[in-house]
């Protein structure tokens, strides 16, 4: 396609989809790494003689890595590019998976989980950031949602893998196999990343305009010419009056900062990752046997998978706010039902149905929206740092929730779910009165819409 020719904004091309899928493999590993520990908690507790507090720390050790990975990922993403950073994340995923499988003591296991956490935190920043920057506005929601789709697919694959390995009766090495299988997709991800182009917006910021034109020409524009999009990106960067290294925490960026922090905090205050990390344990608390608890975990993962696909199909048509509204209502209903099930000791089918409503609400609402929305609301010149802030908030809250959940659940499981339900009532109010809509608007126009110079 010639450099000045408008592309069809309604048409998805294979080049854009292929690159989005490769970047989203970082999300698949993110999901797998996040959920795989759910099938190993009993074994880890026995092998390393852990009490509830140490078990919570063991689970949270990866999350400490994700916090640091999210906090610092913007620096290599801006320095060596989104693609180079993704390649290094693939290395971290591989070493972490192999290291956990062959861990020789608790401290070595904690180190390799921490290393995997760095990869997860970095991927939560760079994968959606990269995809948002190569996608036209008309497809951006769906393309970035591919990352979330792969996160959910990774979660489902982790649950399936744990269940299948559990049925092989491998004895004392079972938990090691559960961690080790992640090394194979990590290697595939590392090799495929080198087939993707650099982000055109990063290339423009580095003055490599001809390379940026070539990428935009192949990925598509929002209806104007390629040169027109280049000029719009340059105006957004406005490096004569701004610097790529200018102060991020300033009044100029206050609005997107508050939006990103609020959305990321609410995501974890739903309790979603506490449920994902401890799904088998939750069902065992409700009286299920180990094999049944593992199978019910697969059902939970499959439910999120289906509703994430549904959200992907409509996110660019119905918008981000409407999905968040529906998801918030579903959260409240599902969490309230789970709290009542534990409080009244009528867990069984009521608990499973309540958790499925909760998981469906997450897949269709927050889960589909969070990485799309955060990747959209910051200007080009600070987008990597904005994405890092959102991811940092997400993972810091995740660590706090996941560390405290076993302690609260050991006292009274209903209290944890009741607290999460109350937080989701707060999210509903935030969505109704504060959250802006970003569907169908170019990244540069969103900057104008939020009143950022």
Compile the SSE list and pairings:
Layout lengths: L13 H23 L4 H7 L4 H21 L1 H6 L1 H21 L4 H29 L2 H31 L6 H7 L2 H11 L6 H6 L3 H11 L6 H12 L16 H16 L2 H6 L1 H7 L4 H29 L1 H24 L4 H17 L1 H11 L6 H51 L9 H7 L4
What's the quick description here?
The chain is mainly α and 453 residues long. The protein has helices spanning 14-36, 41-47, 52-72, 74-79, 81-101, 106-134, 137-167, 174-180, 183-193, 200-205, 209-219, 226-237, 254-269, 272-277, 279-285, 290-318, 320-343, 348-364, 366-376, 383-433, 443-449.
Descriptive account of the structure:
The chain has one domain (14-449): MFS general substrate transporter like domains (Growth Hormone, Chain: A, Up-down Bundle). The chain is 78% helix and 0% strand. It has helices spanning 14-36, 41-47, 52-72, 74-79, 81-101, 106-134, 137-167, 174-180, 183-193, 200-205, 209-219, 226-237, 254-269, 272-277, 279-285, 290-318, 320-343, 348-364, 366-376, 383-433, 443-449. The protein contains 21 helices and no strands.
Tag the structure with descriptive keywords:
453 residues, mainly alpha, Growth Hormone, Chain: A, 0% strand
State mean pLDDT (0 to 100 scale): 84
Regions with little confidence, pLDDT below 50 for 5+ residues: 1-10
- Rg on CA atoms, Å: 21 Å
Overall form: globular
């Amino acid at each position: 396609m010639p450099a000045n020719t408008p592309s069809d904004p309604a048409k998805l091309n294979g080049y854009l989809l292929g690159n989005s899928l490769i970047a989203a493999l970082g999300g698949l590993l993110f999901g797998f790494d996040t959920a795989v520990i759910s099938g190993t908690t009993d074994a880890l507790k026995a092998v390393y003689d852990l009490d509830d507090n140490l078990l919570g720390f063991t689970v949270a050790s990866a999350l400490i890595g994700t916090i640091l990975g999210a906090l610092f990922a913007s620096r290599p993403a801006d320095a060596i590019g989104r693609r180079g950073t993704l390649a290094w994340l693939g290395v971290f995923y591989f070493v972490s998976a192999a290291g956990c499988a062959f861990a020789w003591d608790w401290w070595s296991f904690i180190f390799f989980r921490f290393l995997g956490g760095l990869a997860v935190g970095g991927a939560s920043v760079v994968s959606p950031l990269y995809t948002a920057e190569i996608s036209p506005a008309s497809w951006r929601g769906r393309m970035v949602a591919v990352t979330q789709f792969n996160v959910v697919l990774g979660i489902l694959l982790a649950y399936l893998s744990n269940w299948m390995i559990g049925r092989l009766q491998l004895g004392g090495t079972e938990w090691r196999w559960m961690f080790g299988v992640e090394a194979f997709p990590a290697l595939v991800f590392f090799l495929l990343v080198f087939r993707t182009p650099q982000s055109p917006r990063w290339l423009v910021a580095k003055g490599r305009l001809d390379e940026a034109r070539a990428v935009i020409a192949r990925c598509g524009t929002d209806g104007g010419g390629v040169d027109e999009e280049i000029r719009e990106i340059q105006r957004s960067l406005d490096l004569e009056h701004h610097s790529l290294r200018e102060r991020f925490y300033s009044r100029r960026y206050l609005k997107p900062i508050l939006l990103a922090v609020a959305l990321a905090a609410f995501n974890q205050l739903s309790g979603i990752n506490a449920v994902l990390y401890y799904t088998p344990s939750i069902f065992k608390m409700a009286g299920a046997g180990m094999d049944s608890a593992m199978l019910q975990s697969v059902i939970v993962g499959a439910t999120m998978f289906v509703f994430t696909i549904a959200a992907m199909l409509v996110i660019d048509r119905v918008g981000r706010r409407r999905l968040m509204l529906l998801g918030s209502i579903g959260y409240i209903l599902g969490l309230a039902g789970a709290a009542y099930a534990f409080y009244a000791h009528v867990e069984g089918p009521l608990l499973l149905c309540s958790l499925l409503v909760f998981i469906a609400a997450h897949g269709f609402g927050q889960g589909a929206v969070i990485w799309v929305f955060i990747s959209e609301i910051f200007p080009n010149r600070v987008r990597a740092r904005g994405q890092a802030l959102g991811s940092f908030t997400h993972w810091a809250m995740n660590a706090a929730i996941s560390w405290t959940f076993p302690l609260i659940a050991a006292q009274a499981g209903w209290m944890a779910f009741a607290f999460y339900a109350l937080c989701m009532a707060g999210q509903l109010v935030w969505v109704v009165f504060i959250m802006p809509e970003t569907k169908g608007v170019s990244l540069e126009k969103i900057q104008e819409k939020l009143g950022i110079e």
